Amino acid sequence: MESSETIREQVREKYGSAARSVEESGSSGGCCNKGRRSCDPITTDLYSALEKGALPEKAVLASLGCGNPTALIELRAGETVLDLGSGGGIDVLLSARRVGPTGKAYGLDMTDEMLALARENQRQAGVENVEFLKGEIERIPLPDGSVDVVISNCVINLSADKDRVLAEAFRVLKPGGRFAVSDVVVRGGVPEEVRRNMLLWAGCIAGAMEESEYAAKLAKAGFEDISIEPVRVYAMEDARKFLADSGVDVDALAPQVQGKFVSAFLRATKPGKACCCSPESSAPVRITAKASS
Q1: Contact (Cβ atoms closer than 8 angstroms) between residue 37 and residue 30
Q2: With contact defined as beta carbons under 8 Å apart, do 169 and 179 qualify?
Q3: What span, in angstroms and rounded, lies between the C-alpha atoms of 12 and 6?
Q4: CA end-to-end span of the chain
Q5: CB-based contacts of 68: which residues, under 8 Å, 6+ apart?
Q6: Which pLDDT score is estimated for 34?
Q7: Nearest to residue 21, comparing CAs of 117, 133, 153?
Q8: Residue 292 lies in a domain
């Protein structure tokens, strides 16, 4: 198994390369391709024309997520939002507009190229209530209880220490704060070879969790009111081109893959006051069965 540092450097290089692609050629630097958009089924059609029209083009091009967390969580005027793995800044800029001038949106990223791109996108957008921070999502450089909402877009699955990420998210949230994340999850058992190849496509770095494991880790971190809402089920055809290029027998994999890899929206809440019981005994997890393909 690869070390946490090796995985971190792989992620840093992939997203640094994506940012350079956007800056140098004005083309999207899809996380799973070399010069083509083999990630299209994951990264496209996530934002409305109205949302994209209000942002610099490069902020849209640098969006490499699997969902639109800002559209699925209520953000209120005056709130403070933190985006884990903020990339080119699209979700930070959208959040900043929704919380208004009395609120604030932080973006956290470890990649210098993405931070430079995000800050330039902020300048072009003319949004002042934004601050981009350099750091790792396993060690968030903000004090305890300092934000109202933590969002993230297909980034937590890239971390080798997800327990630490979720514990840090819990730490920086205020009591009653909300966790609202888009991520890739696995539904049910999948053979390891199949999982490895699919996650190279769907997660860019293999690491997506089974949905019940994700929920368990949220509960372990102390969250309650946990829910998992599938947004998009990835069909075998979505990954056919990428997997065929890797020499995998796609037709043989199809029956074991169909419906197993899902883009989901995960919600949870930090208790509003000291809890008298263990996190494991909180309200049951809600997992929605349906999703669009």
Answers
A1: yes
A2: yes
A3: 10
A4: 32
A5: 46, 47, 51, 91, 153, 182
A6: 38
A7: 117
A8: no
Number of domains in the chain: 1
Q: What is the CATH number of the domain that holds 185?
A: 3.40.50.150
- CA nearest to 257, candidates 190, 185, 180: 190
Query: Residue 184 phi/psi, 5° resolution?
Result: -90, 130
Cα gap 211→134, rounded to integer Å: 29
Residue 230: DSSP 8-state: E
Distances (CA, A) of 45 to 55, 204, 272: 15, 19, 35
Closest CA to 261 of 223, 291, 221: 291
Residue 293 lies in a domain: no
Question: Helix or strand or coil: residue 108?
Answer: strand
Domain hosting residue 36, numbered range: 4-287
Count Cβ atoms below 10 Å from residue 48 Cβ, excluding itself.
Answer: 11
* Residue at 204 is within a domain: yes
Residue 149 lies in a domain: yes
pLDDT of residue 105: 97
List per-block mean pLDDT (blocks of 10 residues) for the chain, which spans 293 residues: 59 56 51 40 50 53 58 89 91 93 96 90 93 96 98 87 97 97 82 62 61 96 95 72 64 72 90 54 55 51
